[in-house]
């Protein structure tokens, strides 16, 4: 499968001297096109740095980064900004909707940034907001929306310009269980219907069940990658705004439950394309594998 | 963003409104005060003003000789010439108190430089013995008593002009002047001797169809005196005050303070607004918004706030101008003045936007993943 993003030997440190913190230590990772990859791990393990590099926002100190067939950090700053605008979508933990702009205007922004006319951007934004179940709140300001509704607007904003790669940072952490679940269902279904690649950074074990692959990070390394295959149909359960809580996507309370959903394949990050023969569950795969 | 952030928006709008009000109002008062120097000249109905070559304005002129009036009158193209003296004079009320007025001693034949718009009485009556015409301001100032018992000066009343008892034969519309003093007119030939012995200015009329500027040059050439058209003399008065008094500097300080205070309030508040919303700018940058886009957004918000503040500021300045119209206070608002303060406001807004924009464009997009 072609990789939507790949990292090879990527390192990144912050600070200098004794205060220096090595956030990424020679990370190697491939994110297959069309996959929903989750990046998990304890606080401070380097998830945020990893996703910032994958999103072509943070330049690594060393290593190769390729995103959608492009080496983004070899581009000029302007071309890099344009690359992000055209090909990437973002869902932030704190939503970061622009106050003072309505839901519709917020969603229009990425489309306007890539040069769409206001009319086309408005049509597109309206369509996407309707798709995420926010069609009746087009003129509502972010502060007048609930957390779940803001998240849906943020998701609409992330996909309105049809990006190939959507980067989600803790998309469920600010939401209650039911709302978080609905947000993940929505993300999963929107990704599946257009073959988009999703990279999701999360602490939220309830979300693990939506992933095709789960990369576990520790201390700046990817120590484990679990490949999963969701049953057909589970990726697009219900639809946006499906508030009955009966959607059939898996939502698990812990890693053990995740293991029961589909047989995981635990691989070394070094051999992602040639999984190790292992039947170990995610829960039991606690052994750290150092990246070479 | 700024519309949503009402507190910051109000702070910026207030700062710019205060600044544009102060700048517009102070410049309006300055222009109004300076324009007062023109009024006596503009109201004179003379085509030319002739004075000592070193005369600087209507109150600073070396006396001319009475014979100079005839010399001016003899220049080809001059239809008439008459003397005019302008000087301060004390006028006593009936109760013994007194007021300083600007006294215009005019030629009783031509009445040039005399009152132009009579509210009561007749300017021609200045030719009667011991006659004085006063303007409405003088009539008000020379009133006796206060409140309901206040007795204004009327036509026929007697007032003492210097040491001489005179009869008020007319009341004219107020002639505003740079000295902020009431004005009275007397006939030169019928006033005290000093008025007859010296001449402050010579007012002259041109024959119909004559080119006034050319005529002024001819009079200067023939007499060696300073001869200017009415407009040129008015301009000279204005420029003299502009250069030789501390008035422009005082107003410039007030206007400068308005500018600085506006810049400080608007700039500081705008920068705080940008700092408060850095994460939103960081998110926009992460989403691919370039420096130009961010700057455009920041500038659009600053200009919107600036336009609001400027509108409020000049609105209040216009209200002030209307409120003082017809009072002793001077204020004059012109399109040029509005353009000037609009320009200053744009400078304030642009500086605030540049600082704010500089900060916003430096928002680190990677921070959006660290919240």
Q: Can you walk through the features of this model?
A:
Chain A is built from seven helices and ten strands. Helices cover 28% and strands 22% of the residues of chain A. In chain A, strand 8 (213-218) and strand 9 (221-227) form a beta hairpin. The longest helix of chain A is centred in the middle third of the chain and has 18 residues, at 177-194. Chain A is α/β, with parallel strands linked by helices. In chain A, the strands form two sheets. Chain A has a seven-stranded mixed sheet with strand order 5-6-7-3-8-9-10, with helices on both faces. In chain A, strands 2-1-4 form a three-stranded antiparallel sheet, covered by helices on one side. Chain B is α+β, with helices and mostly antiparallel strands and 371 residues long. Chain B has helices at residues 6-36, 39-42, 66-73, 136-141, 193-197, 212-223, 230-244, 247-276, 278-286, 291-324, 335-361, and strands at residues 48-51, 78-92, 98-106, 118-121, 131-135, 158-161, 164-172, 183-187, 201-206, 226-229. In chain B, helix 8 (247-276) packs parallel to helix 11 and helix 10 packs antiparallel against helix 11. The longest helix of chain B is centred in the last third of the chain and has 34 residues, at 291-324. The A-B interface holds A 48, 51-52, 55, 57-58, 78, 81-86, 88, 90, 92-94, 96, 98-101, 109-110, 113-114, 141, 143, 169, 201 and B 1-5, 277, 279-280, 282-290, 293, 365-366, 368-371.
